[in-house]
């Protein structure tokens, strides 16, 4: 009798386990047939039952079923905004149980890539409607789905900036740098946001130095470094660094343009002229060198004009016309530099404004009006 009883109990146990496994199998079959509501009901039962809740197959199909309901025209209403989280949890649990190379674990990467696309699309929709909080939440989730991805993190930084959450945006730029997306633009954006939040000079300088290690020839970063050196009476250090960089890379026009800028700040105008002209010699399309030479010439012209304007009538009659003639020569010299700068960067507003001033000074009213229209566009 004891043997018969044990056999009966074993049979009952097999029956219960089979019943629960059939819930998973039924979920799989209903998913295959496209009846996702039934598949959802079956997999929800299986995920709660002690006999199947620790099975990789259960978790994998939970993820698959819920994922395929996202955006489904019929069954999409049965899931909510938290569904992508459920899907991610399910696939992570699948790998935890089955390993990366198991029957179900090895299918997860493709499904995660699909989930990443779904979540990113949701984020973009919120972004386009300027719902920044929801967009950022979705970008965060997309980044969790694919931790090595940079797109979601970058756009989270953009959304945080648009929301004017500058400290939040800085954290996203830090994350980008940490995962290898350390472009010059990333450092530039971070520095500008740090300036908006009135970060300390030392913190800014540390970020600039970090950026220069990756982008040693970045004009923007070198200029920011120069600002720090000059503000802290360290111009000689800046010049020494520039000269060393030029010695290592003598054909780099940008380095000469930055050196010219530093020489201007140190009131070495002749040296600045020489450096800017060297930059143009190396790179005839160098914007900074053309623009700054235009400014130097324009400012010289203005100095002569201002002297003439301050003269009394008698002095002006003797010397004023000569000063104005000298001013005109410098305005004429500035013109080709500003025109070349505009050719290099056709949308630069400061260049357009300076061109308008030069044309006006030279009496070229039609050209001044033409540029004024460009500025207003």
Automatic annotation (TrEMBL):
The keyword ATP-binding does not apply. PROSITE patterns: TPR. Residues 1-19 form the signal peptide. TPR repeats lie at residues 253-286. Keywords: Repeat, Signal, TPR repeat. The keyword Signal applies. This is Tetratricopeptide repeat protein.
């Amino acid at each position: 009798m004891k043997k018969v009883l044990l056999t009966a109990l074993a049979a009952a146990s097999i029956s219960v386990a089979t019943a629960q496994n059939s819930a998973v199998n039924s979920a799989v079959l209903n998913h295959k047939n496209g009846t996702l509501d039934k598949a959802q009901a079956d997999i929800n039962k299986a995920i709660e039952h002690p006999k199947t809740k620790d099975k990789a197959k259960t978790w994998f199909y939970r993820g698959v079923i819920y994922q395929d309901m996202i955006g489904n025209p019929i069954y999409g209403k049965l899931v909510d905004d938290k569904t992508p989280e459920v899907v991610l949890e399910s696939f992570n649990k699948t790998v935890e149980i089955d390993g990366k190379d198991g029957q179900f674990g090895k299918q997860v990467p493709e499904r995660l890539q699909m989930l990443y696309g779904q979540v990113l699309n949701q984020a973009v929709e919120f972004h386009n409607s300027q719902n920044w909080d929801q967009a950022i939440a979705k970008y965060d989730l997309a980044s969790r789905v694919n931790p090595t991805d940079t797109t979601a993190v970058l756009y989270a930084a953009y959304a945080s900036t648009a929301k004017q959450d500058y400290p939040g945006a800085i954290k996203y730029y830090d994350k980008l740098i940490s995962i290898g997306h350390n472009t010059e633009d990333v450092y530039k954006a971070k520095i500008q946001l740090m300036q908006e939040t009135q970060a300390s000079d030392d913190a800014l300088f540390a970020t600039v130095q970090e950026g220069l290690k990756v982008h040693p020839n970045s004009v923007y970063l070198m200029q920011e470094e120069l600002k720090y050196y000059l503000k802290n009476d360290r111009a000689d250090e800046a010049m020494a660094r520039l000269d060393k960089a030029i010695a290592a890379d003598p054909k780099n026009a940008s380095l000469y343009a930055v050196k010219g800028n530093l020489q201007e700040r140190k009131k070495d105008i002749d040296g600045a002229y020489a450096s800017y002209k060297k930059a143009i010699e190396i790179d005839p399309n160098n914007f900074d060198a053309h623009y700054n030479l235009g400014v130097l010439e324009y400012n010289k012209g203005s100095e002569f004009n201002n002297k003439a304007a301050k003269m009394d009538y008698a002095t002006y009659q003797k010397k004023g016309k000569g000063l104005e003639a000298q001013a005109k020569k410098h305005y004429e010299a500035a013109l080709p530099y500003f025109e070349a700068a505009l050719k290099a960067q056709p949308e630069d507003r400061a260049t357009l404004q300076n061109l308008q001033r030069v044309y006006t000074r030279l009496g070229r009213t039609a050209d001044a009006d033409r540029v004024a229209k460009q500025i207003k566009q």
